[in-house]
Target: Diguanylate cyclase
Amino acid sequence: MLPSAVPGTLSPPEQLDLAWNLQGSDPARARAIAQAWEAHPEFGFHAQAVLGAVAFEERESAQAQALSLEAAEGLRAADDLKWLARSLMMAALASDVLGQRDQALAQHHAALEVARTMGDLLLQGSILMNIGVLWFITDPRKAEDYFCTAIEVLEEVGPRGQGNLSRAYLNLGILRYQAGEQDEGTTWMERGRDLASATKQFSTWASAVCHLAQVHTERGDVATARRDLESALNEMPQLGGRARQNLLYSRVIVEHHAGEYQAALEAYEELRTFALSELEQQAVFPIRVDSHAKLGQFEQAYALSQELVAFNEQLYKKERETELLKLEERHQAETARREAELQRLEAEAARRDAELKHLENVELQRALESNATLIQSLRESQLVSETLLGVSQLMQLDLDPPDLARHAVALVMGLVDADWCTLARIHSDEVAFETVWARDEQSDTFVRLQLPGVLSVRDPLLHRSARQDEPTFVSGYPQERVTHPALVAAGLQGFASLPAGTANNFTYVLLLGRMNQDVRWSERDRRVLGATGRALRVAVEEQERSRRTREAALTDILTGLGNRRAFEAQVREAAARATFSVAMLDLDGLKRVNDTRGHAAGDMLLQVFASTLRASAAEHMGVFRLGGDEIALLVEHGGHASPELVQADVLEVLDAGVAAARAAGFPEAGCSFGVARWPDEAATVADVIALADTRLYADKEARKARRIGQLSRQDPAPRREVVSFGTAALDLQARELRGPLGRVKLNVRESEILQALAARSQQVVPRAQLMGAGGTDSGGTLDAYVSTLRRKLASVTEQAGIRTVRGQGFSLHWYLPRSEG
Model:
């Protein structure tokens, strides 16, 4: 019976959620609710998680850890992610109190993965905050990273996350201030204070006021510190005891630092009305001794110093006792864990013994049957075993699912009476059939021509086996609730459908049918076909696991591109087929992003650039990450594409990647590259890669030299927002070319080249100057850009065009149309 404290209208999950929320404010009621569900088969682990949280609130850390970890195991098996995250967080908090910091970190990270799987941003932000607190003392830099990530997540949550967000602001400000970034740290603390005040997070608000008072005091602005503390004490009477105590404690420190020793002692008198912790008393003692001494009250100062000595001795003794107690708690927790594991193993052993005895009894009972029946059964079993052994051995072969099914069915058809067998391959809402076996020509015609036109993915013949792991056997098909008249008319009497596994996004189902004979599927039929289906499913899924393992070995984890191993394999295959080109790329600006904005930002830049390359690349173009900022493109063109066309294709992909990276907030992103062609330019595959690499570094050096030259020259002409020529105009900010025939977008390099040509329209502009305008152009890339510009210019106006002046450069010519009449 449930406790009376629980409203009768609440469902069991709602009652346990209520208990979880009451753990801090009303632990007795939370325990009563949890104990009512502790023995329930479905909600027992939820109740255990609540009891672990109550034990933590009551400072029973070892018990809290044991209960939370046991609950986490059960909840993981039940796939209850919300309660799994809760129990892991509570286990981490208990581990931290027990001094098991590594375990606490591991449990927090496990909870974080669960929260990410759930998509719960509020829970993610809370866990990131907890991890940051664990690193606060030992690794402030790492703590700062976690606080920054928590801030990003909680800002995305919105109003629900502002309570935790104010704490994150405050903690980040404290870290920055301690790291010497005092102005920035103060700004973050003030932001945390203001948000906590706005959201009525008074505990966080009071903590922020105390820290800012310390900042003002250290800067010599005691008046501001004193005023803020007095204002907080007077204006927020609803503050809890702990928050008010922190403000009074800060006031004692501020008055002492200001040399107002009498005021510090008076503030202490008000502070002592609260129950001070031993650490707080230890911190206040020296202030009291020093204040009395500065006021000339030497007797009181001496007496207090004696008390301080005695207090420190007592505190040291208690710390040692506490440490010994923690060690004992850890020992007890480990002992309890081992005993529980031993009991589980003993129970498992007992269960297996019972199963074994049961099997032995069954076999003994069967042994009492007639010798003839036993011999016949043994013969049939031997035949079935040999057949299934053959099926099992067959599954070791590296064959595709249709071939595996065809050979397996050929083995078992000596034991099973069926007229045909087909393999259904299901993908989304489509299904295709492949004949595996047919007894005669009539059955073959039925399964090839008639069956595919009738069955769909939603048909019970397929749907049940495609959605479950057990085979389906139907006898007397015409009497089924849902039938197909065409199949009944064709004489279908019985069928069996066997799940055959999923591979490469295809689900396979093996269908067998009986025509014109209403015979039930025997136990042997079910056993043989069930074992065959299971063996086929295991083989197909094992092939799928092997395929995924091979793919993982050839995939870069960060970007999802192929890795160096995949690149080398693809190059070898391409060399055996046809002519190809290799483009070696360097993502410029990555090191700067890593150095100035952190490796998380650098990883994001890589991911944006890589995903855009992959999306922009044509089917004949492979994209690979070889390591760091080094990326390779493999372009298979069979020799029919000119080097200029290949280079233009590569440029188009690179431009898309750079544009996406800059649009994602990385303006420093750029790309250097080099292209080489095999076998035209190299004798071996290694030589063509080395040649592309050499051209890459030549391009990088050329770009660097041009950037230095551009920085050293002062452009005398001011940059215009719109450049006009004839009936066309170039919008520099939007990088849009407009004319009477329409408008078209330009990329960054095309815009720069056209601007340079328009600045000296009707004149020849040297190639060197245009290459500088392009920023990263070299060799034949300028010709590719000009060719693209010609097409785009012709699409917006007929009164302008770009001419090539051989050996010199290019010129932009335009004219205005004559007016009529």
Notes: The CA atoms of residues 764 and 811 lie 5 Å apart. The radius of gyration is 39 Å. The chain is about 65% helix and 15% strand. Confidence is low (pLDDT under 50) at residues 1-7, 711-720.
